[in-house]
């Protein structure tokens, strides 16, 4: 099975996160920089090993086959828009269940190289879902600019970083990346939207919630946790 990246994260305070057994392997879909990685960083103490896989199918298969112990995957884009790939993969692989669901407030920005001129912009690169979430803003502010879809957020960032006429849609935390700055903030059409992520395990039927110190709340009745969108991950 192809693994696109591997890391062990540090400098994440253990207060309010899930204590991770030594060597706990946590997988998530996509390259570095996505929301699934953000949730994994917030959820687990700094002794967990994070692995990035090419996509949702790959990370759930890795969990089913015992390559990892836990998976953090997107569950829905709001309450009425389930992520079909996740639900289809869970229907295919038996013996996997949802341990908890995490809600993460979504904020999107337009990132590009320092000094980028609006008149020089020729294209905007992003995942298809992000274009949908920012459609009204783009129609109003950059109606003539070409939209180029990509599979991974990291691909969009690479293009924006290397081309003076290309911008990327991404979380504002990724403006920390060398060669990129935030050119426009809060460009999402629904500022109050949250995305839902699921923490998956093998052979574990209990669903429970987890409180994340000061930047999360938990719904005791539903077993769901809420992550604040204001605290940004390292990296």
Residue stretches low in confidence (pLDDT < 50, at least 5 long) are 1-16, 204-235
**Global morphology:** elongated
Q: Determine the CATH topology of the largest domain.
A: D-Maltodextrin-Binding Protein, domain 2
Tally of DSSP β-strands: 13
Radius of gyration: 18 Å
Strands of the biggest beta sheet: in what spatial order? 1-3-2-4-11-5-13-12
* SSE run: EEHEHEHEEEHHEHEEEEE
Strand content: 25-35%
Write the CATH homologous superfamily of the largest domain: Periplasmic binding protein-like II
Q: What is the terminal-to-terminal distance? A: 25 Å
SS summary, helix count: 6
CATH architecture of the largest domain: 3-Layer(aba) Sandwich
Can you summarize the main beta sheet?
Answer: 8 strands, mixed
Key terms:
single chain, 235 residues, alpha/beta, D-Maltodextrin-Binding Protein, domain 2, 2 domains, eight-stranded mixed β-sheet, five-stranded mixed β-sheet, 6 helices, 21% helix, disordered N terminus, disordered C terminus
Structural commentary:
There is one protein chain. This protein is α/β, with parallel strands linked by helices. The chain folds into two domains: 137 residues, 3-Layer(aba) Sandwich (D-Maltodextrin-Binding Protein, domain 2), CATH 3.40.190; 76 residues, Periplasmic binding protein-like II (D-Maltodextrin-Binding Protein, domain 2). The chain has six helices and 13 strands. Strands 1-3-2-4-11-5-13-12 form an eight-stranded mixed sheet, sandwiched between helices. Strands 8-7-9-6-10 form a five-stranded mixed sheet. Helix 2 runs parallel beside helix 3. The longest helix is centred in the C-terminal third of the chain and has 10 residues. The N terminus and C terminus are likely disordered. It catalyses: prephenate + H(+) = 3-phenylpyruvate + CO2 + H2O.
